Structure prediction request, 408 residues.
Amino acid sequence: MTKTKIDISTEEKLKEAARAVFTRKGYAATKVRDIASEADINLSLVNYYFRSKEKLFELIMAETIQKLFDKIKPIINDESTTVTEKIERIVDHYISMLIETPDLPLFIVNEVMSGSNKLLQMTNNGKLFLNSHFAKQLMALQEEGKIQFHPVNVMMNTISMVVFPFLMRPLILRSGALDSEGFIKIVKERKKLIPVWMAGIMNL
Amino acid sequence: MTKTKIDISTEEKLKEAARAVFTRKGYAATKVRDIASEADINLSLVNYYFRSKEKLFELIMAETIQKLFDKIKPIINDESTTVTEKIERIVDHYISMLIETPDLPLFIVNEVMSGSNKLLQMTNNGKLFLNSHFAKQLMALQEEGKIQFHPVNVMMNTISMVVFPFLMRPLILRSGALDSEGFIKIVKERKKLIPVWMAGIMNL
DNA sequence: AGATGTTTTAAACATTTGTTTAATTAAATT
DNA sequence: AATTTAATTAAACAAATGTTTAAAACATCT
Prediction:
């Protein structure tokens, strides 16, 4: 019996299509037939390769979240950087990523709201942040009186200011206030601005 | 011929159920049967009162968006208040509203991403903001050099910092970092903090 | 080439789901 | 009270949708 040899190209094409459609339309609105036709591949092969729509979704989800945290982990645990430097790197990395995949935030947020625990599992119940060097630095800042509020606000504000514009992007574009390039220009400028604003907020 | 007299109670119960389920699960994941059983009312009555699932959704959507902008309009056009006072009022109003209906942001954001133009229609293509007294004040601030960035960043940051925590709420709660009351405590504190932070960002 | 295992295809299946129908009950009007 | 109109119900329908089946095409190995 030979080792199962599958055509990577087909499986990968389907995964790529699934990623695209799931991300764009969400789980419920995505039909298996959408994925198949997006990949231009026979309907049955979706089940052949991934057993079920749900299994395929979970696979995509896990990979997406993995990719989301792989880069952030070393940044928030780097003991050689200051709080502001960490924020600079986080902001830079995520804005770059989101320019490439602007639909990602809704995908994640939907997953969060729909009650799945994938994200929590992958962040070790949020302890990835709570136990990070970054968190320790923030608590130190609080103790020396630089910040008079819960350190969680720092993370909230940073992620908010990075991610939210992408959630509003379709609205902004369709309103005509900015075009696609104008939007990218603004968010790229925010790469520099957000760390400065955050430094101000923390009295640094 | 008498004026159609319908049992308000039934229609209203269905609308309330629809609002709840649509908001919680989104359009595609909501089944007409979910709405009927949430309202504990016969399935057929959904079509009897609202013609179709889509019509019902549009009705809920329009009402929601209406409610969303009714309050903000006078605030951003009040010529007697400063930029910071306006931000204080916006932040206070929306955080209060979101504490009552924490699922609202996802509902809106989904609607935005799914390509509907309801929101744009209701904001007169975003001109509600662009032509507001608030926008004029921000442009003045830019001209006198207080802010060296596109004024749209002010609105982006304010809304981001107000709304985003509610999008992350399920994750935060399930992570155990905060409980339901702890979350409310934090966002209530942010009512005071966000205007201060924004003032800092604008060098006010 | 023939045998064996893998991938692809078209068709069919069983559920789910939005909507309609036709009959019944309740309310309003004359 | 009789008649008309509105509201409610259970059943049925048709289309959509996730999944399976069985046969064909393709590849690999002896």
About this structure: Confidence is low (pLDDT under 50) at residues 1-7 of chain B.
